[in-house]
Amino acid sequence: MRRRVAYYALIIIIIIIAIISIELYSGVYPPFSVVESYSMEHSNYWQPGIIDEGSIVFVKKVNSINDIKTYVAGKISDYRTYGEYGNVILYHDGPRIIIHRAMFYLAWNGTRPVILGYDNQSWIKIYNDIIILKNVGYAHRNLMINVSRYVGDSGFITAGDHNVATLPKDSIYYNKTYNAYCATDQTLFNIEPVKLNQIVGVAYGDIPWFGLYKLNILRLEGKWPAIYADHVPKNSYLYLYTSTLIVLILIFTPYGRIVKAIRKK
Q: Tens of pLDDT along 68-121?
């Protein structure tokens, strides 16, 4: 009995130490966030290393814009996270927190837009106020934004991986002239370039599926829309329940009795 109590106490201590360590490293509280929508998904099926609905994503505080590697900077240095170039950031838009990829940092030289990291790359085009990134994302589409209404307003231009890849060609967000999709958050949701003081942190690592427990509680309370619930990647619940069962087995298996039985033999 004492050994069993000591075993469970050890598990609790390990969990507490892990949580404290993660929080100290992250520099934010809480040091994680549950992903509620499908705007970062790359498939209808769950994929490892991609941000899917129900993922628990860890968050690390940033202190300057240099702590964030954008899609542009990531493509230059071949730095990827979650299946694409650059960092994914979490930022405040009013009461909600959005988790999307930082595509580039928009600065200004008078009335001329400046992209940090731009050095005449062939895959970046600037036509006055029109900025186009070529061959973006898993669908290899051109991403476009008109920055004319942001003159003098610097910040990160952001986009969801899924949004870039899936906007229909017959939508108002497709520009036939440039064969490009206006899929940034700034265009789709009328969000201004994201400032440093809006940013919660950069995403790093994740625990898949287990956030679905929280999301389904929110659904019962009417706080998780059906349109999101219906887009949970296929097999996610199967993997969730299987993983939960394995964890419970690992925790409650009577290892002491098993060892004694083996020794008796």
A: 999 999 999 999 999 999 999 999 999 999 999 999 999 999 999 999 999 999
Q: How many H-runs (helices) and E-runs (strands) does the chain carry?
A: 8, 14
**E strand or H helix that includes residue 23:** helix 2-26
pLDDT in tens, 195-204: 999 999 999 9
Helix (H) or strand (E) holding 135, with range, is strand 130-136
Q: What residues does each domain of the chain span?
A: 1-30, 33-252
**8 A C-beta contact, residue 36 and residue 221:** no
**Alpha-carbon distance values, 95 to 39, 98, 212, 257 (Å):** 18, 10, 21, 52
Looking at beta carbons, which pairs linking 74-82 to residues 24 or more positions away fall under 8 Å? 75/123, 76/117, 76/121, 81/203, 81/204, 82/40, 82/49, 82/50, 82/51, 82/161, 82/203
* Secondary structure percentages of the chain, helix, strand, coil, to 5: 35, 30, 35
User: What is the C-alpha to C-alpha distance for residues 215 and 78, in angstroms, rounded to an integer?
Assistant: 34
Long-range contacts of 119-128 (CB under 8 A, 24+ apart): 121/76, 123/75, 124/72
Structure tokens at 48: 């490892």
Spatial CA neighbour of 63 closest among 87, 27, 102: 27
DSSP state of 78: T
Cis peptide before 31 (omega within 30 of 0): no
Note the Cα 221 to chain centre separation in Å. Answer: 24
